[in-house]
Structures
1.
Amino acid sequence: MAVLTPPAWLAQLSRSPELASRLWNDPTVRGASEADLEPAALQAACSRIHEEPAYERLAARLVLRRLYREVLGTPEPDPEAYRRAFVEFLRQGVRCGALDERLLRMDITLLARALEPGRDSLLPLVGLCTLADRYLVREPATRRLLELPQFLFLRVAMGLSLREQQPELWALRFYHATSQLDYLPSTPTLFNAGTPHHQLSSCYLSDVQDSMDDILRSCVEFGKIAKYAGGIGASVTKLRAVGSPVRGINGTSSGIVPFVHMFDALIKAISQGGRRRGTLAVYLEPWHLEIRSFLDLKKNAGDPYLRAHSLNTALWIPDEFLDRVERDEPWYLFDPQFVPELPELWGQAFREAYRARILDAQSGRIPPSAWRVVGARGLFREILATLQETRHPWLAFKDAANARSMLPGVIHSSNLCTEVHLPTSPDEVAVCNLASVNLARHLTPQGVDEARLRRTVRLAMRGLDNVLDLNLYPTERARQANLRHRPVGLGLMGLAEAFARLGMRYGDARSCEFTDRLVEFLSFCAIEASCELAAQRGAFPSFGESRWSQGLVPFDTLEDLCRLRGQVEVDRSSSLDWDSLRRRVREGIRNGTVLAIAPTATISLIAGTTPGIDPYYANLFARQTLSGKFLEFNRVLVEQLQASGLWERVRERLVEARGDLSEIEDVPQTLRDLHRTAYQIPPEDYVRVAARAQKWVDQGISRNLYLQDRSLECMERTYLQAWRAGLKSTYYLFMAPRMYAEPSTVRVNKALRKLRWNLEEPQTCTVTCEACSS
């Protein structure tokens, strides 16, 4: 058969004559009509990614051609046409109501000249498709695409600069940092900055009070927050138990389950314009009388009216419970109507009040219907068994969150992804604004480029602080709380990629030390930047009531947790000049919180790096997202195999082994050890890495866990270790599959051949929670 010569555009896109020739002679492409040529080439490129990762870049360029043709009318625009189109995009977007008219008050011609169309090529295939499907602005009436990737980065940068005295200057700085993927704001900011609906905050926390008025008010607030892409964490601990007396109507309460079911239906109904579903996590303390009904909420079997499949569940666990688990002692469950003080107490005050209520129950001062006794360890095993079955409830630690808080007030829950820890009250719905530094963009062969990282952190902190004043708050309670405490949460992504590039094994001594020093530096720079902002803009209003005003920094609060527990199992070393920073902090800081490490499930796809502090899930796997199915591979491993001349020899076996290197003897043992994946990493390593980061983080860390051992004993050891190490929370638990379906062929899984740029049936990611706000 004659070898056909590919057209010039394909040869140019592939940047490799051999790659272009192989693709052009693929039967899918060779048999396509002229009109279907590019879609056929895209499908063929996607189906070959497993044999040559360069096809992924080619597929991304083919997607870009489609976007350029749709917006600009040509598949290969020159830079000047791209820049002129941005100016027209702004004007048209304002005319059709898709963009904020204030954008046109800036010097848009000046800003357009700064656009760098070539940076579109930094986006990986999955990130590009994610942007195209859900982030890029479309005309509201026709859904016609108006925006291109660089338009988005500059539109967001302008949106973050609307209230700056030199808006063009800061817009350019935000643009250059985000378009080069040095850092990315969270999803709500990318969705809404520069639009008329500028709800830019990621997370909202609410403490639902035990009254019908407050429950219904919470419903309205949750609906408004979810509508504009905010994720919600809500404590329902104060809601009285089923059968509890309702004095106003001389009846009894239906308990927490019907109200949680109502929240579930509400959140399921909100799809944020089809871009992603509404998101809510409900938190309960484990002494609540209805704890077992709460555990059943996520189970597949049973009465559907007693289930809540669309929201997430989490437990807000006091130290007293886990102390009793370790000692295998009784655990008393109470109706909160008869112990109303317990949700407001933590630490030693909670212990004393809880034990006093036990005496009240035993002496008859609390009616028998309002309390029950179970074994603490038995209940913990029930919790873990449910967690293994349903991935819920997540476990978060009440005393660690409150003991290490820098702000006044009581923290009643975490957020949707368990990394935000802020006080709530009947008058305050807490709000947090997130962004994440892309660590992979700050690496040199020797380590981290600290000067570049400091510049990125300073810029990201300014952008986050701007969000607080620009934000469209769904409720007045949220606005008041956010402006009073001005909390932000800067995090990171790409930690596992950094380990791999620098030759560190996830969880070994070098990677733990690297994490410690890295997050210390991140914390120092973020606090330093917030102090600089305070000198320009003033300290946050509740500063005088906070621990910052005492000259404390988040690292100092670790001592408070140690005093509370007697010991926290984490290294206590530091390396920077914290005393000088403490003196600056005492003079004022702009933000009540500065760090929170989110899961970055979606923005890490855009940035093309590993999410949060998670490891590589696998060295090669199929990822299902709302934008379709994508073949993911460990780029660092591929680069190292190619540099060693091993890639072509082992790639078929790598596919056959689903990315598992352990049995591929041709791969050197050093590489096999370096590239252990999620289920090959011992659970204690996950805890060690997170604990070294948590000591510097004033809020929390979204810590997924991956277990090969499915025993409850292993789970119990892991979660108790996380608690003892000072973690504030854990997130999803993933258990290794018991078995795998056999691939239809070694060369390619047939399911991957069905990959399309935009699937008609959106599905959620099965690896990480893509509903997350980060």
2.
Amino acid sequence: MKFIRILFRWLVLAIVLIVILAAMAFLPNVQTWVAQLALDRQTGVHGSLDSLSAGFGKVEIANLHLEFDGAVLTVPSLEARLSLTTAAMDRKFLIRSLVAKGWTLDLRRAPAPDKVGAAGLAAPEGAVAAGAPGQAPDAPAQRAVRALRGILGGWALPCDASLDGVDLEGDILVPAPPGRAPARVHLTAKGGGMSAGHEGSFAIDAEAAVADSGLSVDTVTAHGRLTAAMESPRAINRIGFKADILARGGSLSEDLVFSADLAAAREAGQEAYMLDLSRDNRHLATILAHLPEATRRFEGTWKVDLRNSDLAPFGVDRSLPTIAAAGDGTFDADGAFAQTHVAGRLNGAASHLGVLTPLLERLGAVTFDAHFDLSRGGQSMRVDRLSVSVAGTRPIAVVKSLQPFEIDESTGDVKVADPGGDWMEGSIQGFQLAWLAGLADGFTLAGGDASGDVVVRAAKGGFAIRSKTPIVAAGVSVQRAGKLLGQGFDVSASLLADYDSKGWQLQGAPLTVANAGRRLATIEGKASLASESNELTAIAGTWNADLYALASLAAISDSNWAKGLSATGDFSAKVGAAMEIDGKLAVTGHDPAHTVSASVRVVVDADGATRLLVPVKIAFGPSVSEVTADVTYTGEEAGSRIYVDLMSENVTLEQLGLLAAPFAGRGSASLFSDPAAWTGGPKTVAGERDRIPFWGNSVGRLKFQFDRLSAWGHDFTGVGGTLNIEHGSVVLKDAQGGLSRHRLATLGGSISFDAAAEIPYGLKATAALNEVDAAMLFAASKHGQEEPVLEGRFSAACTITGSGINLNDLAGRTQEEFRLTSTAGIIRLLKTRVGDSIPSAPSSGSDTLGRLGSAVGSFFGVEKGSIGSGQTPVGKTAEAVLNFTYQVSEIGYDQLTVTAIREPDRTIKLVEIAMTSPEECLTGSGQITYVKDLRLSARPLSLDLKFGVRGAPADLPSTAGLLSSEKDSSGYTMLNQPVRFGGTVEHIDSSQWHDLLATAANRKPAGPDKDSRGSKP
């Protein structure tokens, strides 16, 4: 009995202890301590809680804080109703309700999931885990797919479970791009009814404020329903989610509504997934996938029908072109999406591509069609098949791969299956050259379209492009600033291009331009582009041109730069922050002895300032000149500044004209080869009134210095001056130079421009030359004479004035006035021989013959007294004419003045001619008529002069009956008719003067009671 009592006491004590321990287990402090101890033992999870209270059928948790994989979950309060006894004893979690509100899930520091969900499938053996050392991180799309599979992959549960009711409300913080605020998604979920053999249903509502996240909308809201079916207490066999998504605000002109349908199901031996995104009954994207348990590899199909408006909510800070694309295909991937394979086709249309880059806007509306077969694993992409065609109003380009190839995404290196074979081929058909408008300043191309074929071959870690057939375009026209420069051009180019990690190496071998079957020019060039900046770093090449063929083109037939036989050259340039250009040029004229050669050195610094040094050698047969041009150019907001220095020891004006011809435009060569062409000849005013001067906004200075300048048959020495160019004027100042031993007294002028004036251009210029030998101005003498027509020294002055609405009009309205003045000299204009036209007089007049022999014997070249011997007797009138011709054959003048005006048609009007001597005078006018391509001295001359005499010399013409009764204010008696001269400046025709004197010499006397003037003695 004693033993029984002792045993009973111990049993009672044990029961009491058990009761006490059981009672302690229900104490909140003990439960909290046990729960914290359980959290501390978990790997990969850090957690804490303020309190846990578990009673019969109810669990309450306060301030739960969990951190796992960078995600942070904070739950202020959580309440669950379930049977703890069933959960503890039978491992059945039959949750009648679950309520949690005010919670926050912070995903800002959470990495993309590396594996599927806790109960999901592991990555297949050999797959590369995302974020593994040495590997590039997964692409955003790949991370999204893997995260989705992690959510849907939790089919098996660790225990029996059911969920009758859920009431959840909280916020999720979603990471945003760098520099953007995270998006906050407010989520509510209510529902239940999920248990074995039943499908649970949960209402899901979410709203996200994304105005600061970089998206093009302000808010995104979603309202949907989540369903989950359980085939057993521990297995979920189907999950579905359908929702309507609304995007509004931001840059959207109207609200966008999308519908999403997501489903995942576990079937016999495989898992099936479906994702469908639609809008307005149009399926934007549909993905169907299967995951067989035997292969553990996704297999499925995809289909898209997208427009740019569908992507508008996701366009981050940039506009999208107008795009409509549709396609379908297949794909397969391993369980971790580390190895993927996609094949299919994609076609569509696009326009307004200029929002991507302005150059693409010229393509207008285009369509495209692509077929592809791609595989990706790790950092390598394999392309087994690829073909892309792009078309506008006509086909543009087709690109097709000829063999499989791989691309290393980290380095860009390409590896093909057969390195010795062609990799890709491309074809350009109907490429409109008008799309290239604007690539060169002011130039546009039109007409024929470009076509050609190229092949691509992998080489040196990159690829090489070669022309399979030359790229050709026929009937091309070129315009600049609306003016047609040429048309009917045929262009052909063979392209060579190499690309590697260093960049591009481009070569045209060659580019040929022809017209009407005749080659105009050929260019062979090389260029290098850096891979980092895609900017040009170096360029070099050679070129040649048929100038004779170029000059035959209608658009440039009146340009002088092309008037030659041929031109060749080479060039090279280094491009960077500063640029250096070197080149050579050689031009051959129609006469092979006429050549121009030059070396060009250009340096452009980082600020855009340009220095140009050009030594030029010009050879016209034995005449060789060397001219150096030193040019400095700087660009400014208000306009550019250019400074030019021209220097030469010995040069001709015609040679300078060759240098200026490309800049002076039409008729420029004649300005330098013929001074009579300076007005430009007859012109019709073409074009509108200039709003800015022809020199634009440029300002600067042209300084020239020539030790010897040959022009118009004369040599000028020490020629120099400065031409200052300002916004409103061009002014010549500090001009100097000499003609033989004579210096230019003055030389200056200006062209002004007044934008507000009705006629904006004004021209004023003056020049003066002192003490010029007449032989230099009138070098040509009468035909058959050794002595010049004029001897003496002159002062020459020139005044040029003009106005116009544009440059052509200014040239057409320019008037030049010249004035030549001499104070002492000899004029032989009236020298002529009339002896052969005078018959012999009767022999009885011996006294007359004696006088004639004494007076004019020497004129006929006979000895004194021979006429008086009866050899050549003449009459009294003839004797007076012969003596008069001898008297005026050389006139020593005191004053000679010639005033001339050059008319717009280039005719030189001699408006005033005045010569005076003590006993003779000449007055009158005339002109030198312009004839194209004739030098000044060979042009037609016309003079109408009046001759007068006074004093004793008047007796001879009076005796011959040549004088009138008219006298001028100085007492000179005029001849009874004017004297006319013709011919040319170098060969003056004095036949009218000769005939006048011959007629007077052969006139019969009037009678014995009258003198030669018909008056009584």
3.
Amino acid sequence: MKKIVFAAFCLWSMATSYQTVAQTVKKITSANKVIPVPAQVEKITKKGNEIVIPYEKYVLPNGLTVIVHEDHSDPVVHVDVTYHVGSAREEIGKSGFAHFFEHMMFQGSDNVGDDQHFKIVSEAGGTLNGSTNRDRTNYYETVPSNQLEKALWLEADRMGFLLDAVDQRKFENQRSTVKNERGQNYDNRPYGLVSEYASKNLYPYGHPYSWLTIGYLEDLNRSSLSDLKNFFLRWYGPNNATLTIGGDVNTAEVIKLVSKYFGSIPSGPKVAAEKFAPVQLEKNRYISFVDNYARIPQLRIVYPTVRAYHPDEAALDCLAEIIGQGRNSILYQNLVKNQQAQSAGSFNSTSELAGEFTISVTPYPGKSLADMEKLVNESLQEFEKRGVSEDDLTKFKSVFEAQAINRLASVSGKVSQLAAYETFTGNPNKITDELARYRSLTRAEVLNAYDKYIKNKNRLTVSVLTQGKEELRAAEDNYSIDESKYMAIDKGYNGLKYVKARDKFDRKKMPGNGPNPVVKVPAFYTKTMDNGIKVIGTENTEIPVITLLVYVKGGKLLEGKDVSQAGLSSMFANMMEEDTKNYSAETFSKKLESLGSSINVGSTTDGVIIQVQTLKKNLDSTLALLEEKMLNPLFTQEAFARNKKQTIEQITNSKRQASTVASNVYDRINYGKNHILGLPSTGTVETVNNINLNDIQHYYDNYFGSNDARVVIVGDVKQLNILPKLSFMNKLKANKFTLPSVPPAPGIEKTKIYVVDIPRAAQTEFRVGNVTGLTYDATGDYYKANLANYNLGSAFTSRLNLNLREDKGWTYGARSGFSGDKYTGAFTFSSGIRADATDSALMEVIREVKEYAEDGITPAEISFMQNSIGQAEARQYETGFQKAGFISRLLQYDLPPTYVQQQSTILKNITKKDIDAIAKKYLDVKKMNIVLVGDKDKIMPGLKTMGYEIVELDTDGNVKM
């Protein structure tokens, strides 16, 4: 099911208590200053078993809106500062500023040193980030509850004391980082630019939605430091921001701290709401472009629709689901199931100023986009005939409700909802209106939305074409952008002045820590079923949701008996999503979605995993469907042929995706072409072609059983209630078999460079490392190796990331790590690096790893690592999925419940000698495989000067002759 506008909206049955408080200003006296404390504007409380986000709202004299949500279920706090500015506030020729400035906000301020924001939050055991979209930019951190004041101090400092710390060096560095981000996420991947072409041709020239948030490279190149400073002065005032704090806090204490750190920051220029006329297309527009990375074309059809919170928004959301989401959708039935297209779907997206209803189709090779457009048109006509059923509405509302409730699993999810509602509606308690709007949706409203926005309406059609196949476009281009009617809008940049807050306390003094929070690992229960299936569970009553993970032994390792059928377990998992003996896949999906539940099947190295999620009220009905899926699958030739064809196309298409190619080739080099771990989990075109329907049935009959199976349960259900409901699993066969042993990886005689050519690639994908043989061990060398790597390549402030991203500006991000399971382990450095810096970056990677192995860790790094990892435990058990991960590891690796305490002891007592020994043992740069996937013509000259043997490979990892 599609998005929920502006991060997440929560819809469910609730009642609230609203209290208006007189607008008086109180005062409290601190040791340093009389601080004005704002009056409470409103208070929402929870009664009984209501599902509601309680909060108190305040407004400071400088215009800063403050929302506080108390949630004492876990010892964590989430702080979010949302500024009501996104790319929609930008101008022609200055695109990308909002996103660019998001990066600059992490570069230090008057009282926070360069790159210290990440370091301080990380060392405090927290995590942090920021994001920008069309209409807002937000900055957020989740920290242990004793670190709240530190987080507020950091956010206040960059709100009020940023500009003097911004210099040309930082500006250029982050400009390079943003360019790398654009290269990684847009320019260097198949179909990465389709949204950019759609936006600039759908909206009028100059409309702020006519460019993407990332902006254009040419605009980034022409921007100046003064432009960026003016952007901050215009939009980053407290009067254009909402500060939302949620978690294990006391509201009165929070307001005191907010008043202290934010209260003296001067208000910024007034910010008025933007208004633009709805988009009207004068004709059906056709445009096309050639995608360097795409192997097959793609069709994108876009209808202009309505802004967020418009009365027709819910109807358009439902319409998109009926037409193009899920197995029962019209597009799936007419295009995907009939094997005309690999994928086909529709979605409705809404933003503050406008919205789009989009249909996207990726056909099979050889199909023209004109044929795909014809099928889309026929599908729309079919909708007109079939209309909207009550089942359609029930399914839509159930899935919507379930997804909304699931977003309440974390305090960050609750805070994000409050912040978004306040920013865009002025009412954090908007969920009541949203509930009524979606729950009251009628068939007539959906049909009316179709008539108003889709039926016979002009639209934009984008043809994404491949090299030499331009004849496959949907129609000849008939539209060019008209710049003649553009009139620049005064954005209010004249006469801006930077005025700093004046305080009587020392802002340079970083706040200390509060009392350490008490962290409790989840209580759990265990049970062994009659047929030997092991069960582990934990009760979690925060939201009325239950999650089950069912593990059945098998998976990729089974294919080690005969690698000629690599990908069999993945194909089996796909087929388990198809028909059962009593339901077609479509009927099964409809029943599941009408409950707001999900059952997903996937394969892993040593098993098949079934993930189940359901609302508490629908547990019994969902488990009945799970029983049907596990005990009564029906493997048909029609479904098998379709899945096989889709899998082969996905494998073939992935050879144009540099990151996928790099990972697959890296595994091939590390393990060898005849080693099961050297092959992709989906297999290759050749191995998938060797799989037939009988192999799927044989897998189920011989391997899908109770042998070493396990079940993980997390959610709002008691042990005594859930265990009897799982008794159907006793009907699973007791298939007895042993997984093939994993052969050792071939040794590495010397370091070599393996180059895979992707012409015109903007970046080079790096994979550098080797097979360590370190299997998962919660308290042994594997755990210690991850501690050793933390400062090398795991933390944001690690040596590798600071060097390659923050200092050099060559990448959007760089990291290294030790991975391991029961069977093997590896050390890997990975990154997407700017193409023209490939050789220089490789020299830096080798140098950093070598120096770390030879010279070891510093005392300061040990202290940082111990503080960061040690205090992060407060964040490890908050959500249902986190709890599931913890108790699942107990069962999977037969760990004692006290292993977390054992890890804590190791962490506290580990020494430089211990870490240095690990690094020296496992980080040998003379015996590593270097895989580089990029434009050979650009990168090869520099690589040849480095003294390594260079081997050219194709995208499958075969040596090119």
